[in-house]
């Protein structure tokens, strides 16, 4: 056990340093002055160099070899499994490349933000080219002759392949498109909420909503950023949102979404803190939490009734007459460019567009210069109207600017997982709506914490979903839920 104890002490320090590196990224997106980006890139590269050296330290291989797994508990063996996976993966990437990636992603983020603000894709293109070249080099190092995209995908969703995701998404697409066509042609169309909603009152409600969903402000904070995100784990978790005075739902549901991510991290068994088990097991499972918080709970008829009253307390009478009309407004299906603001029905179509394009970028089939045209053509084909400006097109997401190739498909996988969890949760909590109508989400969030969140990285991604639901994940529950919900809203 001495080798295992020494390994875990070393790993605890590495996990703590990783949290510090993450906090540098949080600061860059929320508080840091714009002129500090070059220095922050150097700081990030230096920190990545330290982390890469620790994660590839030969002592790890020695400790792994010397540890008698038969003497370990289930939790200890899980720690060993994740440490070995990370060590073997990281050791394949040269330290020079890891540092270059850290520097390029830090700079790329700032270049993207400015290019997005100026509607100038050409200004971002050189940085994107550099990032893709570095990710291609990394993927080749990781793939051992296999598929580049699959190699990067393992960073976000271990055990899944692009072929498996393509099959799942192929099953989603026909029913989603068919339902959308029925909805857009329906005689009953919910009214859109209109008005001006000041940013300060939106943020006041956002804080209330985060607390409603169990976000612990003693261990975290809520700020504003260009692109909402969650950061951290254990006892320090940060979330961000954004405000648009004509669209309060942008703020509210971004807040609930990021609270879902944060509450997953806060819900992990405290005994796992600063160990490999002390955070969410994969991005797909992470997205299952943010999406079920945002959609199946937050956009439910019961909870929107509570939100309707909360908004009237702050803003007075609304443009919609009652809670039923407000529920329709929250879930209204309509034209929109932005993935993070998309309704439940069309959201996955946004993800599939990115999934297909980033595979082509990584393989070299699609040149960076041709990305705006490829994006705009695909968008018009999928959604039926044209992209009007780059910030509503290929510049809208931060992910490629920070090198997150392989990340996007986990959003739709998370939706599939959320559909499965919602089916199991509703069976276990038949009276859930009676709590949600009061703004009390604790029965739902408590069920998720007990059945999924507390386990952190103890189980493999699909295993933890299957344990929580009692069946292997499939797209059917999500599709059935969407068809039932939107058929009722649109009186189909």
What does this structure look like?
This protein is mostly helical and 492 residues long. The chain folds into 2 domains: 2-146, no CATH class; 162-489, Neurolysin, domain 3. The chain has a 3-stranded mixed β-sheet, sandwiched between helices. Helix 8 runs parallel beside helix 20 (476-489) and helix 14 packs antiparallel against helix 16. It is globular. It is built from 20 helices and 3 strands. 64% of the residues lie in helices and 3% in strands. Strand 2 and strand 3 (236-241) form a beta hairpin. It has helices at 2-30, 37-55, 58-66, 74-91, 95-118, 121-143, 148-153, 162-184, 199-212, 248-267, 283-297, 301-315, 323-330, 344-363, 371-383, 409-428, 432-436, 442-451, 461-469, 476-489; strands at residues 220-224, 230-233, 236-241.
**Class per helix and strand makeup:** mainly alpha
Mean pLDDT: 95
Domains (count) = 2
Largest sheet: 3 strands, mixed
Overall strand count: 3
Overall body shape:
globular
CATH architectural designation of the largest domain: Orthogonal Bundle
- At the first level of CATH, the class of the largest domain is Mainly Alpha
Stated plainly, the CATH topology of the largest domain is called: Neurolysin, domain 3
Q: With helices defined by DSSP (H or I, 4 residues minimum), what is the helix count?
A: 20
Measured distance between first and last alpha carbons: 63 Å
- Helix residue percentage: 55-70%
Q: What letter string, H or E per element, gives the SSE order?
A: HHHHHHHHHEEEHHHHHHHHHHH
Strand content: under 5%
